[in-house]
Amino acid sequence: MARFGTWDKIIMILVVLGALNWGLIGLFRYDLVAAIFGGQLATFSRVIYALVGIAGIWAISYLFRGGNNHRREVH
């Protein structure tokens, strides 16, 4: 079972929020981040978009992590 640290959990939350926002954009043409924070060009919206992007880049590292996250139980 994978064990996530605090930063890993924050990264995953941002990635999931970004994925949900993109899903809303793709399906309904509704940008939730822009709706909440004052439009796509609002400073806070841009900060959120940037954080989600950085989180996505960081999440790529999960694909290349060593076998430390998966342990086999010995009976």
Mean pLDDT: 88
Described by strand count, sense and barrel closure, the largest sheet is:
none
In angstroms, what is the radius of gyration? 16 Å
Low-pLDDT sequence parts: none
The number of distinct β-strands equals: 0
Q: How do the SSEs run, as a string of H and E? A: HHH
The percent of residues in helical segments reads 55-70%
Enumerate how many helices there are, as a single number: 3
Portion in beta strands: under 5%
Shape: elongated
Q: Which structural class do you get from the secondary structure elements?
A: mainly alpha
What is the rounded distance between the termini?
A: 16 Å
Topology summary:
Layout: H1 6-28, H2 32-37, H3 43-60
Account of the 3D structure:
The structure is a single chain. The mean pLDDT is 88. Helix 1 (6-28) crosses helix 3 (43-60). The chain contains 3 helices and no strands. The chain has helices at residues 6-28, 32-37, 43-60. The two termini are 16 Å apart. Helices cover 63% and strands 0% of the residues. By secondary structure, the chain is mainly alpha-helical.
Structure characteristics:
63% helix, single chain, mainly alpha, 75 residues
